[in-house]
Design brief:
Blueprint (H helix, E strand, L loop, with lengths): L1 H22 L38 H16 L4 H13 L3 H12 L6 H13 L3 H14 L4 H13 L3 H14 L4 H15 L13
Helix pairs in contact: 1-2, 2-3, 3-4, 4-5, 5-6, 5-7, 6-7, 7-8, 8-9
Length: 211
């Protein structure tokens, strides 16, 4: 009975993994920057800062929701399987179920606490859940420990946009440009800096998140 149960669990994980590779993107985008009231000491009008890239409003596909249900079953049957836990968190992230994704990211990180990509994704899910300050603290630590993690620096800039903190936004955008000048993130960072100067996107450009 025990061996049969384990075999079924392994098969379910294998099938779910194949489904997830087909259904989900490999990397997470930088977060949106939803409107937020100006913070004390950093007040600025909406004309002075770019609105950022709002989350996509499109509902999760039935296939993705079915995948999440399957992964939830797998994690209940195999609670100590970190790969299944991470797959569930990523699927919930892609479905914009950010508050559901965060605890699953936390659980995964108990087995892989230094993983910068997972920590960055978790911080972004926290940001989208309204936990802005906690998300910032996590990404500041990631950026400190992993000097070349461009997405952590870029996402920090997006987080600070939501707080109307132009100085911190510029600081982290410049970090991206200085450390990874030939990346798409650096090009986007230059565009955001230009937007901060003028209050408008460059001609012919629509600002958005990067992957």
């Amino acid at each position: 009975m025990g061996r049969s149960y384990m075999a079924m669990g392994i098969l379910a994980i294998g099938l779910t993994f194949v489904l997830y590779v087909i259904a989900a993107p490999v990397e997470k985008p930088a977060p949106g920057a939803p409107a937020a009231p100006p913070q004390a000491g950093n007040a600025a009008s909406s004309d002075e800062l770019p609105a950022g890239h709002p989350p996509t409003e499109q509902a999760a596909s039935p296939q993705l929701l079915k995948l999440i249900d399957s992964l939830m079953t797998v994690t209940k049957q195999n609670p100590n399987d970190p790969k299944a836990r991470l797959m569930l968190a990523n699927a919930q992230y892609d479905a914009k179920l950010f508050t559901d994704a965060v605890p699953n990211y936390r659980t995964y990180l108990k087995t892989d606490p230094k993983n910068p990509d997972v920590r960055t994704d978790m911080a972004t899910a926290m940001f989208e859940s309204g936990l802005v300050d906690e998300a910032i603290a996590i990404l500041q630590q990631v950026a400190k420990e992993f000097d070349d993690h461009v997405n952590a620096s870029y996402n920090l800039a997006m987080f600070y946009i939501s707080k109307r903190d132009r100085d911190s936004t510029r600081l982290w955008l410049q970090e991206v440009i200085d450390k990874a000048p030939n990346t798409p993130q650096a090009e986007r960072a230059k565009q955001v800096i230009e937007m901060l100067k003028t209050g408008h996107p460059p001609a012919g450009q629509q600002q958005g998140a990067t992957k």
